[in-house]
């Protein structure tokens, strides 16, 4: 502390005052600092040492020294029984003689069982007599969990320590702490933190790093931001790289000359190498002086980039590219998911609200229940949304609710309770979200889950977090929650035919929606439905949608054979044939996929295996006399059928 090696302690005056007060007692004058990891327990002990140096403590503590006990060093090398006890006894005796020493034991729980073997004493039992009589002053620091697990169990040890609870600082206190440490980190990284950057460090770390505590997470963000900005501003001058390349060339030439035994030329080259080395040293010295004088500025955007890297959450301000992506989201998704434009528009609005910063920060980005007949694209839309938003297949966390039909299976979501098999592994939902905090979470076929599952979902929908079996808080604030259900699908099938006029479509959809929502209200509890942002009913697909879906399915099929550069085109009549055979209003688009499999994929697979179609083939599929016929045509040839329309699938390069 006297050498200025310790960081200053900002705030925590009440805790330091309480520690000084306990140390001034006659007996049992041993405080133990208890708090979550990263709240500043060790910093309080360091702060006390700084206060003693500055004489800002009660007179009883003047001239005291705070000494850290390294328990590992004491245990190390104790081979034989009695060696550890001998060392501990010598330390305790020394501390009892040197009454000006305050012992600091970080991770206090480690003294329980340390050095203990069968028939011998551990460190905690050796400390007990001296601690009780007040002959030895000790400050301990440990987390709440470890205090409960190790020290509370030993009542005799617990009563010798006086608890001092250390709570995480508020946002304003964290800001003051970061401001106090700012100069230390600026001089280390040779950067300047703007006022905006300091505010963003505290706000963004508090908002997005939810599994750690202030001020530790803010200090980490400040440290890493300083390092990132400093490294990105180090640009080696061309002059230095030029001299280094010249030295490398001269050294190689000298080695070649030495091998040919031309020692006169080698001596000239050696002198040249020495001259270049001198030049390089001088140039580097001038550059270092310039670097020391020129400090880079750290802005709020730099902080946001670092938080994004640490959390995998796009915290950065909405760049123009992302802005365009968000504005075009509904158009792009409508190209991929056919016939559900109102649903997509509503989803896009919810995402845009979030990225604009208008949503409640303590709730998920959005929570939706997708309802409607089977095969209309409920699960498919969730997959496409994840792909579009995150460009990553792993960003869709799919939980199949049919696996949670039994009451006991509910614990699999958040983890098995203590004492049961799999307790340490965590929950299937919570672990996935901890690893991918920015994702689409899909609860598929919600109605099949046991009712107790909805109690867990209530907390996620309302508070944006859930606690797993290990006591860890898992944050859902950056997830989109989508729940799909086929409730009411049977009712839809009974409603009869579907017209082709616009008015018929609208009235049929409204009737279906009213019936499905009525049934949903009977199935789910009101408190569950009330917490969901939107209940969306997908409309039934018609033949007009089928033609568009055919293009998408053919495109997906072409991607599978992209290494062969095969292009497949369907005439309009061929598409009509597929739509006619694959359209079923009850089962949606799934029969269409089976029809394409039967009439297109199977024959093409057979011809590919026979070797009929070479790489780079152009295959035209036509409807001839109510049967599909495949023709291999020249790449430049025009298709005879006037109604031919090229599939969405362009020529795929291998």
Keywords for this entry:
Helicase, Ruva Protein, domain 3, Rossmann fold, extended, five-stranded parallel beta sheet, 4 domains, 654 residues, alpha/beta, single chain
Unreliable stretches: 496-502, 639-654
Helix content: 40-55%
Count the domains.
4
Return the CATH class of the largest domain: Alpha Beta
First and last CA, distance: 66 Å
Q: Please name the fourth-level CATH homologous superfamily of the largest domain.
A: P-loop containing nucleotide triphosphate hydrolases
Overall shape: it is extended
Rg over CA atoms, rounded to whole Å, is: 35 Å
Q: pLDDT average, as an integer?
A: 78
Provide the β-strand percentage band.
5-15%
Strand order, sheet with most strands: 2-3-4-1-5
Q: Largest beta sheet, briefly?
A: 5 strands, parallel
Q: Count of DSSP E strands?
A: 17
Task: Describe the 3D structure.
- There is one protein chain.
- The longest helix has 31 residues, at 263-293.
- The protein folds into 4 domains: 13-165, Rossmann fold; 169-317, Helicase, Ruva Protein, domain 3; 320-537, 3-Layer(aba) Sandwich (Rossmann fold); 543-633, Helicase, Ruva Protein, domain 3.
- The two termini are 66 Å apart.
- The protein is extended, with a radius of gyration of 35 Å.
- It has a 5-stranded parallel β-sheet. The protein has a 5-stranded parallel β-sheet with strand order 9-10-13-8-14, with helices on both faces. The chain has a 3-stranded mixed β-sheet with strand order 15-16-17.
- Helix content is 51%, strand content 12%.
- It is built from 26 helices and 17 strands.
- α1 packs across α2.
